[in-house]
């Protein structure tokens, strides 16, 4: 029986758990600050003390071969070098949204629908506005393709009007559809630096500018999902993940969101969009569950 160490590395913190391939679930998830200079020593200690043979790490950043450079830090994980250095049986690196897509078997009962649909193919789109904007595709719940859609620029001038702003620089998509976008756009309007959580609370308190920002975010999210639906044709639905969506989805006007998702498209495409479901994953720590599912798959 091979013991695995599962790690999800974020810009500030990392979460980790131990697992065996025969386990039914992850028994205990731990959290601690991610310190790049101390990471290799931490891994060495964990491997030595727990007889680890398989290491699976999910990281925010594009994966090239078996290497990932973090999006928000100048730190690179090289899976082949880690495997050799620590004499591991396997060292698998996953983009964080690649991991989230792999988590489906463990989150499928924890989904709240914003919009119901009717499945017409095996493609599922995962997306999450957090610090950035992550997305991935799952095909047949087997093949997973991570994307870097949050760093694209094509639709941004169109989305700026939702916030009634005119940026003085070129924006990428996640500058307009993310938790960071909420806080930075509120700052642009008020010259007050705050968090997306605080802006959301101000929205709940009927602060006029916070209402404009949150409503602009929700509209921008729906319009973005509509364009991505035409790009990837996710006939098995769209799933939204992350703490921001778990917080905000209860305040989304479902009928209005659906109308925005469908409007401004021709009749044929509107009929297809009507069939695509949109749900919110309410379970937390989804990347670790994706890592766990990858462990199950490579051990089967």
Describe the protein.
- 42% of the residues lie in helices and 23% in strands.
- The chain folds into two domains: 3-103 and 285-299, 2-Layer Sandwich (Nucleotidyltransferase, domain 5); 111-281, 3-Layer(aba) Sandwich (Hexokinase, domain 1), CATH 3.40.367.20.
- With 300 residues, it is of the alpha/beta class.
- The protein has a six-stranded mixed beta sheet with strand order 9-14-13-10-11-12, sandwiched between helices. A five-stranded mixed beta sheet has the order 3-2-1-4-8, sandwiched between helices. The chain has a three-stranded antiparallel beta sheet with strand order 5-6-7.
- Helix 3 (96-102) packs across helix 12 (286-299) and helix 7 packs across helix 8.
- The protein starts with a strand and ends with a helix.
- The protein has helices at 36-50, 79-85, 96-102, 104-107, 156-163, 179-190, 196-204, 208-232, 243-248, 254-262, 267-275, 286-299, and strands at 3-9, 13-20, 30-33, 54-59, 63-64, 67-69, 76-78, 90-95, 111-115, 123-129, 133-139, 143-146, 238-240, 278-281.
- The mean pLDDT is 94.
Shape: globular
User: What number is the mean pLDDT?
Assistant: 94
Structural class: alpha/beta
> What's the tally of helices?
12
Helix coverage percent of residues?
40-55%
Based on CA atoms alone, the radius of gyration comes out at 20 Å
Strands, count? 14
Can you tell me the CATH class of the largest domain?
A: Alpha Beta
Q: Poorly predicted ranges (pLDDT <50, ≥5 residues)?
A: none
Number of domains: 2
Largest sheet: 6 strands, mixed
First and last CA, distance: 12 Å
Main sheet strand line-up: 9-14-13-10-11-12
Order of helices and strands: EEEHEEEEHEHHEEEEHHHHEHHHEH
Strand composition percent: 15-25%
What is the CATH-assigned architecture of the largest domain?
3-Layer(aba) Sandwich
CATH topology of the largest domain: Hexokinase, domain 1
């Amino acid at each position: 029986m091979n013991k695995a160490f599962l790690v999800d590395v974020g810009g500030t913190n990392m979460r980790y758990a131990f697992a065996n391939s025969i386990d039914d679930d992850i028994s205990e998830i731990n959290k601690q600050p991610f310190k790049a200079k101390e990471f290799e020593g931490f891994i060495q200690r964990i491997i030595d003390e727990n007889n680890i043979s398989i290491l699976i790490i999910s990281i925010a950043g594009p994966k090239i071969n078996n290497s990932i450079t973090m999006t928000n830090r100048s730190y690179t994980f090289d899976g082949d070098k880690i495997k050799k250095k620590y004499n591991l049986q396997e060292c698998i690196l996953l983009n964080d949204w690649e991991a989230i897509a792999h988590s489906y078997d463990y989150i499928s009962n924890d989904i709240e629908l914003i919009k119901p649909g009717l499945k017409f193919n095996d493609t599922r789109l995962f997306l999450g506005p957090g610090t950035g904007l992550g997305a991935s595709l799952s095909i047949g719940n087997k093949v997973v393709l991570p994307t870097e859609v949050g760093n694209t620029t094509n639709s941004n001038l169109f989305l700026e009007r939702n916030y009634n702003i005119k940026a003085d620089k070129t924006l990428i998509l996640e500058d307009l559809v993310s938790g960071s976008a909420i806080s930075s756009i509120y700052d642009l309007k008020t010259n007050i630096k705050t968090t997306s959580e605080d802006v959301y609370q101000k929205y709940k308190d009927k602060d006029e500018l916070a209402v404009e920002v949150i409503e602009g975010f929700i509209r921008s999210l729906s319009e973005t999902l509509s364009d991505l639906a035409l790009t990837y044709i996710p006939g098995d639905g769209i799933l939204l993940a992350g703490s921001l969506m778990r917080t905000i989805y209860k305040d989304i006007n479902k009928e209005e969101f659906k109308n925005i998702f469908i409007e401004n498209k021709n009749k044929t495409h509107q009929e297809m969009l009507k069939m695509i479901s949109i749900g919110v994953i309410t379970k937390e720590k989804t990347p670790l569950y994706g890592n766990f599912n990858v462990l199950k798959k490579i051990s089967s």
